């Protein structure tokens, strides 16, 4: 079976196939994948990592398969201004939630309880469907959502 030998961030060159995966499907260490055109291969990394939309997966035969981030149900969080959005980001981070941070909004995986909490903090929360490409965390790619007491 073909194996991935290198991950090429933001690949824009030619490619033999592509795989379309949601966030969970793109955060892996080891799995067999089959591209949209039938090319099968093994992803076998030393540690789990998040593959980003647009990454190229270079196979041991030299071909490249491009990763596509599938749209999924998310919450778009907006504040009244930049400072308000920063405060909302602090509350989200305090709960160790995986988040995609942009200049004027934060995207989170859909969670009714978290959405309700953010609305009580004055956020405008809207359900959206979009690819999810969250921050990796200070120590590399982080893949967990949990809440705990400090």
UniProtKB/TrEMBL annotation:
Keywords tagged on the record: Chaperone, Cytoplasm, Nickel
Keyword Transcription regulation set for record: no
SMART domains: UreE_N (SM00988)
TM helices/strands, residue ranges: none
UniProt keyword annotation of Cytoplasm present: yes
Family indicated by similarity: Belongs to the UreE family.
Physiological role: Involved in urease metallocenter assembly. Binds nickel. Probably functions as a nickel donor during metallocenter assembly.
Record protein name field: Urease accessory protein UreE
């Amino acid at each position: 079976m073909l194996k991935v030998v290198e991950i090429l961030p933001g690949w824009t060159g030619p490619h033999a196939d592509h795989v379309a995966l949601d966030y969970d499907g793109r955060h892996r260490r080891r799995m067999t994948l089959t591209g949209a055109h039938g090319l099968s291969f093994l992803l076998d990394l030393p540690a789990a990592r998040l593959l980003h939309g647009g990454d190229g997966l270079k196979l041991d035969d030299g071909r490249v398969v491009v990763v596509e981030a599938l749209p999924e149900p998310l919450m778009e969080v907006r504040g009244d201004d930049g400072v308000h959005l920063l405060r909302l980001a602090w509350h989200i981070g305090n709960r160790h939630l995986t988040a995609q941070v942009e200049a004027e909004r934060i995207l989170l995986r859909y969670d009714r309880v978290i959405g309700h909490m953010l609305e009580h903090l004055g956020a405008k929360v809207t359900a959206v469907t979009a690819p999810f490409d969250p921050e990796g965390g200070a120590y590399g790619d982080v893949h967990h959502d949990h809440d705990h007491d400090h």
